[in-house]
Amino acid sequence: MTCTLILTRHAKSAWDSNAPSDHSRPLNSRGRDSARALGNWLRETNELPQQVLSSSSQRTRETYHLTGIEAPAVFTERLYHASSDIIFQVLKEASHSRTMILGHNPGIAAFAHAIVNYPADHTRFDDYPTGATLIAKFDIDTWADLTWSSGRVIEFIVPRELLVT
């Protein structure tokens, strides 16, 4: 059996908003377009998650909603600016074999590097820009069996590759 991880950094947020805190910063217009494009891409590649585990921030909530993913989401403070170790623990608790994690850098980038056996062959994998999405497969029966460096990269994409200008 295999488990599939869809690891997504939130789409581009608005730094010029009147949000009272970092946690409540919304997406900007490019970020909204990117989130929609990511959802379309996941549908086209038939890699939709069965569940979404997301940071509780406004920008991750918006990213989730704009993708149009119908899988239920859990928004948790644990994933707000979480370290790779926290992301690992949250994923080990996942209950569905196809799970999306939606979060922030630098934790998402660090986790992406640590969870796969070989990095994605992509120039943007190291910096994991906003909206970047990794699809990785794991030869495990449940997420409780997850170990570091065990995932195989299936896809890695950044929204710029999906948006037609």
Could you describe the 3D structure shown?
This protein is α/β, with parallel strands linked by helices. 27% of the residues lie in helices and 21% in strands. The protein has a 6-stranded mixed sheet with strand order 3-2-4-1-5-6, sandwiched between helices. It starts with a strand and ends in an 8-residue tail after the last strand.
How many separate helices? 4
Radius of gyration over C-alpha positions, nearest whole angstrom: 14 Å
Major β-sheet annotation: 6 strands, mixed
The strands making up the biggest β-sheet line up spatially as 3-2-4-1-5-6
Average predicted local confidence, pLDDT: 96
**First CA to last CA: what distance?**
40 Å
* Poorly predicted spans: none
- The share of residues in helices is 25-40%
Report the principal-axis shape. globular
DSSP E strands, number: 6
The amount of beta strand, in percent, is 15-25%
The ordered H/E elements are EHEHEHEHEE
Q: Which structural class do the helices and strands define?
A: alpha/beta
